[in-house]
Amino acid sequence: MTRLRRLEPILRLTEERERAAARAFAAARARQTEEERRLQLLRDYQTEYRERFRQSGAGGVTPRQLAEHRAFLERLDLGLRQQQELLAKACAQCAAAQESWWAAIRQRDRLAVMRARLHREAQQISERREQRESDERAGRMVCRTAD
Q: What are the two backbone dihedrals, phi and then psi, of residue 102, each rounded to the nearest 5 degrees?
């Protein structure tokens, strides 16, 4: 079995690993986008809630309403912090998945270069063999005609 033939299954496996890494990166990127969307929804809701309270409070609020408002804002702030942490984790996972994908691409490319080199070498060997056989035939014909 030639080196080129032995390399082909390895290259196919490397290409599959690269495709799997690309899928993992796409999934991590989708999770990151979803976490960003959720964080933005919370921020928008917080802004909207504050604005509604400001508008409704223009006529005055009771101490109880103010305490409930503050307590809700604290829970909302906690939710925002938790969502920011989730987003940070999603970003880190996305970066790691992207690096894994790039590493898989580099490995695939190295093997593709090796395959091309082995293919060129095999082609050169074949051409040299054909040339040698052609030279030998021509030499035999010259010997026959000389006899």
A: -60, -40
- pLDDT of amino acid 144: 73
Scanning 3-62, the segments in alpha helix (DSSP H) are: 3-56
The tokens for 11 are: 């290259």
- Token pair in block for residue 48: 């909207």
Residue 96 CB: number of other CB atoms within 10 A? 13
Domains of the chain with CATH codes:
3-146 (1.10.287.1700)
Run of H or E residues at 78: helix 63-146
Residue 38 contacts residue 115 (beta carbons within 8 Å):
no
- Contact status, residue 39 vs residue 80, Cβ threshold 8 Å: yes
Out of 29-33, 66-70, 81-85, 143-147, which region has the weakest mean confidence (pLDDT)?
143-147
| Continuous segment of H or E residues that includes residue 117 | helix 63-146
